[in-house]
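Progress report, Aim 2. The chain analyzed during this reporting quarter is listed below.
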Amino acid sequence: MEKQTLGQKICELRKGKNMTQLELANKLNITDKAVSKWERDISCPDINTFPKLAEILGVSVDELLQANLSGKENSEKKDAFDMVLKAVPLAMSVAVIILTLIDQLYWEDAATLLGIAVLAFSIKNFREK
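Predicted structure tokens for the chain:
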């Protein structure tokens, strides 16, 4: 089961208290637009807001922070990291071939470059499991 984002957690807890975004916002002295942004994982509450938010929602700050704080941003970082893991083996292999063709590569350097390629390939395959 995928972990809830902070926004999903706030929304669920707020609705569990039968509270509107405006009511929650008024209790925190902020705008309902800010609450809406939190719940859509566009932004996060200010660190100083967490204790009051947790109190209003009837949970501990720790429980709120157990949520996946990055949501969509985390997914984008994962996609970028996966793309790098796909590109590194190819780049290292091409470097070895080109440097070998122009006679500018020692076998120790080739082993290092190919080792990096194998490591990246292994990490990529491990993450896909």
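The chain has a mean pLDDT of 83. The longest helix spans residues 71-101. These observations will guide the mutagenesis work planned for the next reporting period.
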